[in-house]
Amino acid sequence: MDSRAFSPEALQSLSPVGRALFNKFGRGEAREYPLKCVHQAFEFQARSHPEAIAVEDLHERITYAHLDREANCLAAHLREQGIFPGARVGLLVERSIHMVIGILAVLKAGGAYVPLDGNIVSSSTLTHALRDSDASLVLVQDKFADRVFMTPTLSLEEFVCTHKTVAECSKPEELSSPDDSAYIIYTSGTTGIPKGVDVMHQNVTNRK
Q1: DSSP state of 21
Q2: Which residue range or ranges hold the AMP-dependent synthetase/ligase domain (predicted)?
Q3: Over the range 88-101, which residues count as b (16 or more CB within 10 Å of their CB) and which as e?
């Protein structure tokens, strides 16, 4: 077999029709994906398997239905606090059920979350990320609350505990689109200054 036939230079000699066939080779049938946003995919799963275990940590486990209700309650509260598409919300937590509730609530409200691991993130990076992202609010676990100074905070544990007896919470009106930000992650940056990378819903669902 002549390897030259598969060189990049050889591909340039293909006709437009041949190039189109080459680009199409190996691709499956294109299908429309109805769940355009990250939280919509979760909600579909919650409707399909409400009593299945959605997430568990060292202390408890909760079902999809329970998780959806908790996230809806918090999302409604966040909307009341002015969290709409375009707003950024810091998430200063450790891996836990509260973290997942916070993520889903921010997305359901229409905002983008800024994930910050309270056990790892340095004070300088925390301050920079909240300032650079222009975070309107920080959802915190109580153990990390004293690390935030200039931005309003909301205790995840306190909110969830207060609303445990609420039978149902309505999800805020859906305002998100695939082009909206889902989250912003901060890299170390070549200059040593963390740089924010804005990730849209469609980047996560891999559909446009």
Answers
A1: H
A2: 42-206
A3: bbbbbbeebbbbbb
- Amino acid at residue number 160: V
What's residue 9's pLDDT? 67
Q: How many CB atoms lie within 10 A of CB 19?
A: 13
CA distance 197 to 29: 31
* Cα–Cα distance measured from residue 181 to residue 9, given in angstroms and rounded to the nearest whole number: 39
Structure tokens at 78: 């966040």
Task: Give the integer Cα–Cα distance in Å for 176 and 111.
Answer: 8
The sign of the torsion formed by the CA atoms of 133, 136, 141, 145 equals positive
Cα distance between residue 140 and residue 158, in whole Å: 10
User: Which position has the token pair 């939280």?
Assistant: 39
pTM: 0.82
What CATH fold (topology level) applies to the domain 32-205?
Rossmann fold (3.40.50)
pLDDT for residue 161:
86
Positions of the chain with pLDDT under 70: 1-11, 26, 28-33, 164-167, 189-190, 207-208
